[in-house]
């Protein structure tokens, strides 16, 4: 991925509205929201949608609002006749935002620096209406953490590289910006409101073009969050994410399917060759060649995306990654979920 972020801090260019949808996020709002409200940017507001929370989120938001006048709170309450979801909450937040340029994150996320807004907003130049950011997971000792971080950086390399090549197909809602006019021109999330996920990747997939999309991966713009720590919560998250793939544009579905299937077949054939002792030296040679090639290709970009420590785990995690893609691809196709939180 040949891209060099601008090192000099850009001058403010446009007013920004930061949008955060939060459901039962009292602890995260307490820890992360004040930091977002102290960003080094002269003209911005933060819109938090308190989405049907049953904890103390409302009281915490009231307390924070007394200290920070540029915090706006939108409250969504449960309705007897229908259930709300994240897309409904975000739509209300976008309508309440006073600015044209919108920057999205989640309540459990914390930007790497106070220059997050400044650098993301600088991406809105010329015809750009979508800015794709990067959101890695915080490094911990939990047994799921290494693979979760590996999967995140692999996904980021794919979608950021594709955007640089003029064919953006997804973004991550933890660190994503687009314009209010684009949102309403596209009729918001109307075409996929029936799907619980997709407020980020489906919106980008349907509205990104070669000319209206940019990326920003300066370390100041990384937005960190904690990964799931149990298999159950991780499984639910991945099942939800994979369920939207069928709604991608056909060319992107073919591209992603080709990558997933060919990678999976490589490792299946490699294992079969070893088990049945069919040209095992040749199979090992192909395995090593793939690993060396990956090291050559990924060495700089892994470090650029704060994942340099993952390089030497490539042979193991790459195999798990392609098994995971195919398994969850099938699960997402046949098993649907109806809750986002």
UniProtKB/TrEMBL annotation:
Residue intervals of the Glycosyltransferase 2-like domain: 17-149
Domain of life: Bacteria
Major enzyme class: transferase
Enzyme Commission number, as recorded: 2.4.-.-
Keyword Transmembrane set for record: yes
Keywords from the UniProt entry: Glycosyltransferase, Membrane, Transferase, Transmembrane, Transmembrane helix
Transmembrane segments: 256-275, 281-298, 310-335
Family of the protein in this entry: Belongs to the glycosyltransferase 2 family.
Pfam families tied to this protein: Glycos_transf_2 (PF00535)
Listed name of the protein: Glycosyltransferase
One example GO MF annotation: glycosyltransferase activity
The species this protein was found in: Mucilaginibacter aquariorum
UniProt entry tagged with the keyword Repeat: no
């Amino acid at each position: 991925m040949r891209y060099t972020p601008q090192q000099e801090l850009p001058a403010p260019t446009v007013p920004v509205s930061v949008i955060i949808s939060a459901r039962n996020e009292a602890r995260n709002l307490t820890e992360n929201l004040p930091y977002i409200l102290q960003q080094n940017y002269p003209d911005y507001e933060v819109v938090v949608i308190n989405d049907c929370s049953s904890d103390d989120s409302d009281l915490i938001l009231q307390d924070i609002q007394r200290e920070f006048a540029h915090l706006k709170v939108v409250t969504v309450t449960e309705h007897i006749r229908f259930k709300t979801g994240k897309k409904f909450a975000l739509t209300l937040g976008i309508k309440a935002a006073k600015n044209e340029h919108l920057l999205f994150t989640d309540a459990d996320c914390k930007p790497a620096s106070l220059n997050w807004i400044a650098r993301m907003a600088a991406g809105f130049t010329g015809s750009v209406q979508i800015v794709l950011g990067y959101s890695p997971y915080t490094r911990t000792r939990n047994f799921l953490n290494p693979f979760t971080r590996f999967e995140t950086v692999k996904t980021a390399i794919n979608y950021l590289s594709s955007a640089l090549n003029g064919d953006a197909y997804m973004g991550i809602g933890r660190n994503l910006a687009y314009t209010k006019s684009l949102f309403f021109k596209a009729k918001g999330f109307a075409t996929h409101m029936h799907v619980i996920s997709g407020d980020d990747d489906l919106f980008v997939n349907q509205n990104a073009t070669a000319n209206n999309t940019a990326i920003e991966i300066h370390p100041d713009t990384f937005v960190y969050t904690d990964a799931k720590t149990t298999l159950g919560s991780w499984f639910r998250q991945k099942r939800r994410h994979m369920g939207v793939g069928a709604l991608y544009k056909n060319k992107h579905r073919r591209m992603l399917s080709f990558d997933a299937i060919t990678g999976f077949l490589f490792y299946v054939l490699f294992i079969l060759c070893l088990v049945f002792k069919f040209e095992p030296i040749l199979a090992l040679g192909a395995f090593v060649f793939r690993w060396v090639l990956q090291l050559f290709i990924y060495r700089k970009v892994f470090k650029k995306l704060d994942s340099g420590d993952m390089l030497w785990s490539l042979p193991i995690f790459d195999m798990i990654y392609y098994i995971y893609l195919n398994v969850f691809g099938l699960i997402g196709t046949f098993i649907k979920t109806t809750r986002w939180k």
